[in-house]
Design goal:
Elements lengths: L1 H5 L2 H22 L3 H10 L4 H9 L3 H14 L22 H4 L8
Helix pairs in contact: 3-4
Length: about 110
């Protein structure tokens, strides 16, 4: 509860907006499978910097410049064509509707 009181809602909303925009940038520049490929890099144990460098073949400074230029050129509202294309990548603990379908055994 203490942490919830310390979070600035504007900052959190801005962070989500930037993250959503970055995902759309990656998909636009590196294809519809960019996020799946990025997650595969995470599964190999790579950190975010290394995973992005592997995916894009660019330095982080170059990628940041490209993202900013893309953002300035694509600053309209995003139109979603489907609710969430990465549903198959969720863990069972995230969505309570999924969690209800699982039974957990004993170790």
């Amino acid at each position: 509860a203490v942490m919830e009181n310390a979070i600035d809602p504007y900052t959190m909303e801005h962070g989500y907006s930037v993250a959503q925009t970055f995902i759309r940038f990656l998909e636009n520049r590196y294809g519809d499978n960019a996020i799946t490929q990025l997650m595969a890099e995470f599964a190999k144990g790579r950190n975010t910097d290394d995973a992005l460098t592997t995916l894009t073949g660019k330095s982080l400074d170059s990628l940041n410049r490209d993202f900013r230029q893309w953002g300035f050129a694509n600053n309209g509202n995003f139109a979603s064509t489907e609710p969430w294309p990465y549903g198959h990548l969720y863990s069972p603990g995230i969505d309570p509707r999924i969690r209800e379908g699982f039974t957990w055994g004993r170790r």
